[in-house]
Amino acid sequence: MSSKSVVIISTSTRAVRVGPAVAEFVKGIIEKPLSEAGIKTTLIDLVKFNLPVYNEAVIPAMVPEKGSFQHEHSKAWSAEIAKHDGYVLVIPEYNYGVAGGTKNAIDYLLNEWKGKPVAIVSYGAAGGKTANEQVKGYLSGVGLKVCETRPTLAFAGGPGPGPDMFAAMGEGKIGDESRKAWEGQAETIVKAATELKELLQ
Fold this sequence. Notes:
The radius of gyration is 16 Å and the shape is globular. Strand 3 and strand 4 form a beta hairpin. It is α/β, with parallel strands linked by helices. It has a single domain (4-200), classed as Rossmann fold (3-Layer(aba) Sandwich). Strands 1, 2, 3, 4, 5, 6 and 7 form a 7-stranded mixed sheet that branches. Helices cover 40% and strands 19% of the residues.
């Protein structure tokens, strides 16, 4: 197959967040199997786009056929997403649901996403299962092809005041026990990447 580009997106926007570290962890697992199929993987951090709550005068469905974005943050986000062939969204779960920043980023666009494949990897005290299901609904609704396998990465010790939750929330680090447990889920993460690869073909 011809060369394709998949971007792994860390969607957490908190000041202290483990999202970028989780995205790096996911990239480390899927980069080799995707590269062997001629698929390039890159990382982006949603926080760098500094997206406010959607503030454009046009609705995303109008861009680019019947309208255009006015703000530089919208143009930059649109251009970044449009240039890739597929996506891996690495999403947190906050308070038993999808994070506002994640939903806002999805809502900014339509035609840039539409028809393309996406894998979802969630993380949280219980693996982010609720947010994972919610984001699946959002992305399917706006026309993306969502991979069936959607890994959920739970922090060791669960929601209690354990060291891994403190490391994630206070330092933006993946605790040793969590990393060990997540490495045990590598096969599931690779399966999601394989489904993504197949959808790209």
